[in-house]
Amino acid sequence: MKGSVGASTLLAGEKTRVGKPDYYTSRRAIHLLKTCGDTLSPIMYEICEWAANHPFQISRKSRSVINKAFVRLAKTGELPPLQNPGPLRHTDYHNPPKPAQTMKPTGPSPLEKKFALLWVHGIKGPTDVVAEHKFHPVRRWKFDFAHVATKTAIEIEGGIWTGGRHTRGNGFENDCEKYNAAVLLGWKVFRLTRDMIVASELEKIVGFIKEQAAKN
Question: Whole-structure pTM over 0.90, yes or no?
Answer without folding.
Answer: no
